[in-house]
Amino acid sequence: MKDLTVIMPFLNESMEPINTINSIRETSKDIEIIAIDDCSAKQFRPKIKSEKGLTCIRNKKRLGVGASRQLGVQLAKTENILIIDAHMRFNNGWSEKMVDLLNENVRCIYCTTCLSLGYGNMDLKKAKSRYYGATLQVFNKDANPDRPARDILEAKWIPKKKDGTYEIPCVLGANYFFTKTWFNHIGGFNGLRLWGSSEPFLSMKSYLAGGSCQITTDIEIGHQFRDRAPYTTLVSNLVYNKLFIMETLFPKELQNAVEPLMPNTRSFRKAKDEVKKAQEEIQKQRNYYLSHFNTGVYDYFDRFHIETP
To answer: Which of 74, 156, 218, 238 could cross-link 196 (Cys pair, CB 3.0–4.6 Å)?
Structure first.
């Protein structure tokens, strides 16, 4: 029986999903892999066939990374889940360590040490740097005003604190793992559009529900960071996700303090219109969080000394 399911969405990645699958299989056992092609263009579509231990799903229309991950989690046959991108590399022994950690704490979103691999380099021994999770920046008063969301609700890498496993404010690096039960309890990525802000959303909710986020320095996964993605995402979708998070998790006075810091661009106005149209679903999710979560966002911000306006 499999112990862990790896969820790997991808879009226009050519051969990299296959290379990542090979790296998983070469370094682990008892793994189920769910690869989700989020409607890649024909010329960039890798030839992945479903077989024992590997399920390949091809979306008929683009759902976005959050919805694709959500789909993968619901299809997983195991309780333990790892979410990754499609351009990553693995060392031996990582899956057993993940399962052991999840057996110890089911109310946690874990992330691994992230090895930064430059474009064209997939050798873990030649990693450019290591990252150890993130904090959450609610706002940046000195940010460049030309940025689409002016550094609102952005995850920012933080330095290593110590060896082992310890709490961090926010996961980051597309290398996080959790139990299916906990993910569903905190609502996963429900409501987010296409791409953006998934790590802050998931991380805050884990704490608000009485759980935590933790980094383990004992597991290292290589992640290729690129100058540009092989697909486009409308700025209005990025802004929408930030507004959606504020609408569902923030008290009104904090939302009213943060939202005016976002540039009043056409993308912002479009996102605001979309938020108005989605009010029924937003209110439904907000009511769920209010009834199921026992901690407020100010407690979370105080816990990690996160500044608010």
So the answer is: 238
pLDDT at residue 243 is higher than 90: yes
Q: How far is CA 281 from CA 68, 194, 275, 294, in A?
A: 19, 17, 10, 21
Q: What does the CA dihedral 196, 197, 199, 200 come to, rounded to 10 degrees?
A: 170
- Any idea of the CA torsion for 139, 145, 150, 156, to the nearest 10 degrees? -80
Q: Is the pLDDT confidence value at 44 over 80?
A: yes
Q: What is the pLDDT of residues 254-308, one digit of tens each?
A: 999 999 988 888 999 999 999 999 999 999 999 999 999 999 999 999 999 999 9
Residue 212 in contact with residue 106, Cβ under 8 Å?
no
- Is the Cβ–Cβ distance between 136 and 240 less than 8 Å? no
Write the single-letter amino acid at 131: Y
Q: At what angle do helices 235-249 and 198-208 cross, to 10 degrees?
A: 10
Burial 47-75 (b: 16+ CB within 10 A, else e): ebeeeeebbbbebeeebbbbbbbbbbbee
Report pLDDT digits (tens) over 131-166.
Answer: 999 999 999 877 777 776 678 999 999 999 999 999
| CB of 4 closer than 8 Å to CB of 27 | no
